[in-house]
Design a protein that fits this description.
Layout lengths: L2 H22 L6 E6 L7 H11 L4 E6 L7 H17 L2 E4 L4 H5 L3 E3 L13 E4 L1 E5 L22 H7 L7 E3 L3 H11 L6 E2 L4 H12 L10 E4 L12 H7 L1 H4 L6 E4 L16 H5 L2 E4 L4 H7 L3 E5 L3 H4 L9 H4 L4 E2 L2 H13 L6 H8 L10 H23 L1
Parallel strand pairs: 1-2, 1-3, 3-6, 6-7, 7-8, 9-10, 9-11, 11-12, 12-13
Antiparallel strand pairs: 4-5
Length: about 400
């Protein structure tokens, strides 16, 4: 890493902290800030959580803007507004790594030295920072689970940018994901809470609203791969697309392709994609869409010809070839055979294997994640206020 980059990051951190303190001179308001850098509008999760916080007296403020490599001025304007609201709000919710949140030195509670070895022990209290991670489950490794490999950050870069620092609480979808999230965010597992996201409730509602497809209609198969962050990585689903005409020419089903929106330069606004709702089968490689498909009652296949490589970079928390081998195909012909067999005899689909893959991903989460999150955070705010009163 070059010296110029290090100087630039330290300078940026200094500027962020200076602005934060200047804006903080005015005092805090009963405000909850929601920040997203991958979409131009608030996600469904943000809007539902905002309503729940509003019912408890906190005013939601949304900062959402999709930023690209050539958006310096929009980025600077978003950063300025974010720092202003961070200095004024009581709660901040983020859905990905946020460099401004990570680089600012917030007021933190003292953390008892109880032998915890997590890198990020800082516990911001003003504001309380909630990481509402954008994906269900913990399929593939991310964050601090995959340092110094092709599809991850270098250790030097993670230290310089203080990646994922300053999360008071990290929200995951269920008990089965807590340990992996603690590793990924380098925080104590006690700070990872299985409250899930409002989209979980919406998916269950949609599953009950939509009945089975009429027998007269052809089944629909949706191909939805994960994003490939490393430009030299294999892209097996792209290979399928290139040979789709010959591979699926006589298939007893219709095929639809849905590459990751960020891979196509589009925004990642969240919510339930219409093409997922309309699908009968979902074929993915390592995308967390498998959990959304499960909540909707869809059937899933894994196309994993590069599984050996992917176990190394970025790595897998749940390996489908081990947990549900009957749902996996390692080549196009094997995938076509699986799909043909299930479409001709739906009862042959091994539902129990998909259940084994999803096992624990939603355990412990409630029926109304937005209300649960707002209630949890507001209870923590009340506890902090009581402790401050006691110290006075």
């Amino acid at each position: 890493m070059g010296a110029a980059k290090k100087v630039a990051v330290h300078a940026a951190a200094g500027a962020f902290n200076l602005l934060y303190r200047l804006f903080g001179l005015v005092g805090r308001r009963d405000e909850v800030l929601f920040v997203s850098r991958k979409a131009d509008r608030p996600s469904y999760d943000y809007e539902e959580c905002g309503k729940a916080f509003a019912r408890r007296g906190l005013t939601p403020v949304y900062l959402a803007q999709r930023l690209g490599a050539k958006t310096l001025l929009p980025y600077a304007w978003l950063a300025l507004r974010e720092i202003y609201h961070l200095a004024r709000c009581r709660v901040c919710v983020i859905d990905r790594y946020d460099p401004i949140v990570s680089l600012i030195d917030f007021e933190c509670e003292p953390v008892p030295s109880d032998g915890c070895t997590a890198l990020h022990n800082d516990f911001p209290t003003r504001p309380v920072v909630v990481q509402l991670w954008h994906a269900f489950g913990a399929f593939k490794k991310f964050g601090y689970q995959c340092l110094d490999i092709a599809e991850g950050h270098s250790s030097e870069e993670a230290a310089l940018f203080k990646i994922h620092r300053n999360c008071s609480w990290v929200v995951c979808s269920g008990e089965g994901a807590r340990a992996a999230f603690a590793e990924a965010f380098a925080c104590p597992v006690e700070r990872v809470v299985p409250l899930s996201r409002p989209t979980q409730r919406r998916l269950r509602e949609l599953a009950s609203e939509h009945g089975a497809r009429p027998a007269s209609e052809r089944p629909r198969v949706l191909f939805a791969p994960t994003i490939r962050k490393y430009d030299k990585a294999a892209h097996p689903v792209q290979d399928l697309i290139d040979h789709a005409d010959e591979l699926f020419a006589e298939a007893p089903f219709d095929v639809e392709w849905a590459l990751h929106p960020l891979e196509q330069g589009k925004e990642a606004a969240g919510g339930v994609p219409a093409h997922l709702l309309a699908a009968d089968y979902v074929v993915t490689d390592y995308s967390s869409i498998v959990y959304e498909a499960w909540l909707l009652g869809k059937r899933v296949a894994f196309f994993v010809p590069d599984a050996e490589h992917y176990r190394t970079s970025p790595g897998l928390n749940v390996d489908p070839t081990e947990v549900c081998p009957g749902l996996c195909a390692s080549d196009a012909e094997g995938l076509r055979a699986l799909l043909d067999g299930w479409v001709r005899d739906p009862r042959s689909y091994p539902v129990e294997e998909l259940a084994a893959f999803v096992d624990g991903a939603f355990d412990g989460s409630g029926d109304d994640p937005a209300e649960d999150l707002a209630a949890f955070v507001c209870a923590r705010l009340d506890e902090q206020a009581e402790r401050r009163d006691d110290r006075c």
